[in-house]
Write a structure and sequence with these properties.
Strand order of the largest sheet: 5-7-6-8-9
CATH topology of the largest domain: Glutaredoxin
Structural class: alpha+beta
Mean pLDDT: 89
Strand content: 15-25%
Helix content: 25-40%
Oligomer: single chain
Largest sheet: 5 strands, mixed
Number of strands: 9
Number of domains: 2
CATH architecture of the largest domain: 3-Layer(aba) Sandwich
CATH class of the largest domain: Alpha Beta
Low-confidence stretches: 7-19
Length: 232
């Protein structure tokens, strides 16, 4: 989050006048936390808590904004992480609106299952993720080069994009550690950075699936599960 949450939470834990509805809870949280912008407030079906979204992240509070809770709510019976499920819905996008022309395209098999990955060539988790993706068949992978990790990430990304075969250059870098040959051309890298910021991509790899769901990190099993479900 963009604010100093621990200190603000400590300052927020005191009694005050009642905040009776979602609008007043919004005002109360913004007042307690030093004027931060609350994106949304919704009453949850558990513990009389209110879900508060700030900077795309979820926190919880009571109706009087006496206490603020930062963490996950779990269903003890099913062990479902209710906060994570809700976070996924909040962070979902419209897949069809992604600019696929700004991505390196890799097709395997019939290419039926398509998804987008924001990745950095210097990202260790991206390399681990790519090793898993390489074993998938009948997929189309759109890799949006997102140079945010290292000082030379942008240079390497530029050389990959400008290569004669960008897909091969990307895979050689990620699977074999072979740096792309230096080559310059017009690239979408600046547009990619703007896009990632708008979509709140804060780490790599970040995957967007056909249903708009976002998967953060090298969580191959989760990606495959959603792809398989969408193919049925």
């Amino acid at each position: 989050m963009s604010f100093q949450l621990p200190a603000l939470l400590a300052a927020a834990m005191f009694s005050a006048a009642a905040f009776a509805d979602e609008a007043s809870v919004k005002r109360g949280v913004e007042s307690r936390l030093g004027g931060v912008k609350v994106e949304s407030v919704a009453k949850t079906p558990y513990l009389d808590l209110y879900e508060v979204v700030i900077g795309g992240e979820i926190i919880y509070t009571d109706e009087k904004v006496n206490f603020i809770f930062n963490g996950s709510v779990l269903d003890a019976r099913t062990r479902r992480n209710l906060t994570e499920e809700r976070q996924q819905k909040l962070s979902a996008i419209k897949f069809e609106e992604l600019p696929l022309d700004q991505a390196v395209k890799t097709v395997r098999g019939n290419g039926k299952r398509a998804f987008v990955v924001f990745a950095d060539p210097r990202c260790g988790f991206c390399k681990q993720f790519e090793e898993g993706l390489f074993k998938l068949n009948d997929v189309t992978i759109y890799t949006i080069l997102y140079p945010v990790i290292a000082p030379d990430s942008a240079e390497i990304s530029r050389h990959i994009w400008c290569a004669k075969d960008p897909s091969r250059a990307w895979l050689d870098m990620m699977l074999k550690g072979i740096l792309p040959s230096p080559k310059d051309c017009d690239t979408p890298l600046e547009k990619n950075l703007v896009l990632g910021k708008r979509l709140r991509v804060t780490g790599t790899p970040t995957t967007f699936l056909p249903d708009g769901q976002r998967v953060v990190g090298a969580r191959l099993a989760e990606v495959v599960r959603v792809l398989d479900a969408s193919a049925k």
